[in-house]
User: What shape does this take?
Amino acid sequence: MLKKIVFAALVSSSLPSTATTLWESDDTLRNVNLIGFAHIDVAQFDSLPEQQNTQIDDGFQEARVALHLSSRLSSRITTFIEAELTVTEDNTSDSLERWVVKYDIDNNSQISAGRYHAPVGYWNQYYHHGRWLQISKDRPVQSDFGLGFVPAHYVGVMYERKIRTESLTIDLDIGLGQGREADLIIPDFSSPVTVKGKEAFVAQINVTPNKNRKLNYGGSTWVGDLKSSDGSTFEEQVFTAHFRYSGITGDFLAEASAVKHDSQDARGNTSNYGAYLQYSHRLSVMEGRLRPYVRLDYLDIDEDDYVFAGLQSQDRQTLGIRYDVTDNSAIKFEIRHDDLKDDDLSIESIHGQFSAFF
Amino acid sequence: MQYFKVLLVFFLLCSASTGFAQTDANADNKRSLVVIVNPTVQQDSISTEDLRLLLLGDIRFWKGGGLVTLLIQAPVSWERDTVLGEVMKMSEPQYRQFWISKVFRTEAASGPKVVLSNEMAGILVSRIPGAIAFVDDAEVPPDAKVLKVDNILPGEEGYPLVFK
Assistant: This one.
């Protein structure tokens, strides 16, 4: 009998599942699990904005591995770590993206502390650095980590609550901490000015109708203080709204956001807006592995916004196709048209990506 | 003539019994999913809605407070197909992506444990505190603790987890 149990446990831990269990205690209450995402990007541009020549070029763009370790420390305490290694033509970087320690109060509520991706907007909260998880090759413009339009990171505490009514399931996240860890760099000066976040409050709500669980809608808000390295201070307010229909064949996601900066020292008050619409359709041919998609991105930056002086208004149209090579790997191709308003420049480009989950 | 009547009655009885046998065979085409749990689980019954939430990882603790350990059959088994298709209304890729995404979003430390057979499910359920598994009614381990679903035991009229 003992041999049977050991065999069963060994076979169980080696079967394909959602995470690889690296270690587990005899009573299964404690464990260490690993999942990882990797992708390689290539692209070809017809023209490039001058100030970005050092960042983007034709050919190889980047290779990135995101490792996600999760561990149950006891029946109620879990910890999660996401670390990332990125290789570009000019640079190799590593970063600790997330580290969260979470306590399960009961089935409907959790409290946690650590470094998070800020729960501002649907994309930030649901895809993180898992390119294989998302249908499209890249994140939307408004949610681009490198751009910093909406806050990317956040250090603090978070309370998560699931509220179930007869007709709705409501997920509520409320957090308090410090935001925008040098997410923004203002380049238009002889020495770059960096903007750092101070105290921040964040709340996100996501609603799922019980009778149609393919629908999600909700929004988030972020209120924080910013201080630039030249001494200016701002209050930042971010509001987002999202709507998603996720069917077996069709998948629609729309999100809009507004970012307001109120200067505390006569630099004025400004408002900036971003939005995107994305639709993908799983074709019935090739065992449903082909998914064409289209996305429209919009970003409107106030010319007088000091904090966003490094950003510019932009429109992007993307037409792409995703092919799931295996159950855990995909190839994506995209054709893009970008209009950069300040540079008065239109860019046509093609992009490719191989992404995998392991 | 008497012989003829006896033969006729015999023939009719045979036909009727064959008919009954066919009816029983039709009934046998339906199989029940039986919910078995570790004996330390204090609950005796679970609702179909709570079963769905448990499969989604939204119920992590039993009513007595113990941690839930979910065991699910490997792909291409009747039990898994039925749990995913009939109870959760999800396709295999959707279910897999759902759990990967859930772990990645830090909502769960790991996904369900995969088992290869009803026998293996029975062994692990008996040994892992708080474990739960779904097995074919024809292969329920003899000493397993079986949960009622909506207060109905498998085999009783109205049991909700009966499928073809």
Observations:
- Chain B is about 40% helix and 20% strand.
